[in-house]
Specification:
Elements (H helix, E strand, L loop, with lengths): L4 E5 L2 H13 L4 E4 L13 E4 L6 E5 L7 E5 L3 H13 L3 E8 L8 E6 L5 E6 L5
Helix pairs in contact: 1-2
Length: about 130
């Protein structure tokens, strides 16, 4: 249902590097980086995704309000890899990988706080690998 989402970041180069490392564990990569001349607000932006279409964007902006973004993946192992890569890239723990049965019996997720405090999650809805 969601085509794409964008979040503000306080340090664009730091956040770009963070998301390149972390999203690679979910099979996503930097797909597009428009120049300031190509964006509405005159800043760089980075679009990440799988295939050819960016679905997650970052750009410099006011990070006064922290957001929650959940990335879906097909295996619990990739949720674990996401969590470890995020911590290695400087994220803070906000919920170690594990089942969250209060959502549904197979909800396996991990939560971290990115460099700006956004709550970033990886989730697998399938049964154990």
């Amino acid at each position: 249902m969601i085509d794409h989402i964008g979040i503000p970041v306080s340090d664009y180069p730091r956040s770009k590097q963070f998301y390149q490392q972390v999203l690679a564990t979910l099979g996503a990569q930097l797909l597009m980086e428009p120049t300031p001349e190509q964006t509405v607000d005159g800043h760089y932006a980075a679009g990440f995704g799988r295939g050819h279409k960016p679905t997650f964007w970052i750009a410099p902006g006011d990070v006064g309000t922290h957001l929650h973004v959940a990335f879906t993946t097909d295996t619990r192992a990739s949720v674990d890899a996401f969590y470890q890569a995020a911590l290695a890239a400087g994220a803070r723990d906000n919920g170690a990988p594990g089942l969250r049965p209060h959502y549904h019996p197979n909800y396996y997720g991990a939560f971290v706080l990115d460099p700006d405090g956004h709550n970033i999650e990886a989730v697998c809805h399938r049964e154990a690998d």
